[in-house]
Amino acid sequence: MFNLNDIMQAAQGGQGISNLAQQFGISPEQAQAAVSSLIPALSQGLQSKLGDANGLGSIINAVSQPANQQAFNDPMAAAQASAAAGSNILGSLFGSPHITQQLAQAAASQTGLRPDILASMLPVVTSMAMGGMFKSMQNQGMGNMLGQLTNAAGNAGGMGNILSQVMNPAGGATSAAPAAAGMMGMLTSLFGGLFGNNAASGTTPATLPGGINPAMVQEGINALSKMMQPGLQVAADHQANLQSILASMMKPQS
After folding, report:
1. In the chain, how many domains are there?
2. Is residue 141 very low, low, confident or very high in pLDDT (cuts 50, 70, 90)?
3. Which of 69, 38, 57, 27 has its CA nearest to residue 161?
4. Cα-Cα-Cα-Cα dihedral of 250, 50, 175, 205, to 10°?
5. Tens-place pLDDT, residues 187-206
6. Integer Cα distance of 92 and 169 in angstroms
7. In sequence order, what are the residues at sequence separation of 6 or more whose Cβ sits closer than 8 angstroms to the Cβ of residue 166?
8. What is the residue range of 98's domain?
9. Can you list the alpha helix ranges (DSSP code H) found in 49-95?
10. First-last CA distance in the chain
11. What is the model's pTM?
12. Residue 48 confidence (pLDDT) above 80
């Protein structure tokens, strides 16, 4: 599982799409179309937070949440608990419920399904995807690292707090890396600071708080960033619509 589409196809022993169809009273073909239309929005939302300390911290925390892991594995968990867990993640990614409603409307125009069905499905798909990221990390031998990193962040006041200090040690306003640097460049710079790389001293600590190996964390973040890719072809009009909706998140409030 190397992207969001792979994760959803593998969910619940390969029956995740069929189980979603049953849960929401639609056909498997409609459920597949719904998931395919929602994945690009989730992908863009996840990637939009990679330059933000609190946003990146919330993603790592969500991936480590047992409720999301259960939703990926168990259709009953997905039906009962993952909607709340997924809604929390969507709140972190998009802020206003108005944004998620707009995303559901955009998906409705692609699928012909009612927006209210898609709005209800989006949190469940999100929770399943987060759990699938953890499963993929486990398969790559990084599940324990994610748990350790989350625990260390909890002891230090939260992942966002740790990353905020790394991104802005002087204590001023945090800013994302320039877009020209690219996502991977931002991650390398960000986590290079977290690992304590220092050009003046040439030293790198062997571990992070909690005895975590810095090189393993870097590998884990790189793996997560790849899994945030949609993994499917997105229609040009749908892509443009999503970008327009998500751009409204960046507009200053009057």
Report:
1. 1
2. confident
3. 57
4. 170
5. 445 455 444 444 334 444 45
6. 24
7. 53, 190, 191, 193, 194
8. 1-254
9. 53-63, 66-73, 75-80, 82-94
10. 42
11. 0.80
12. yes
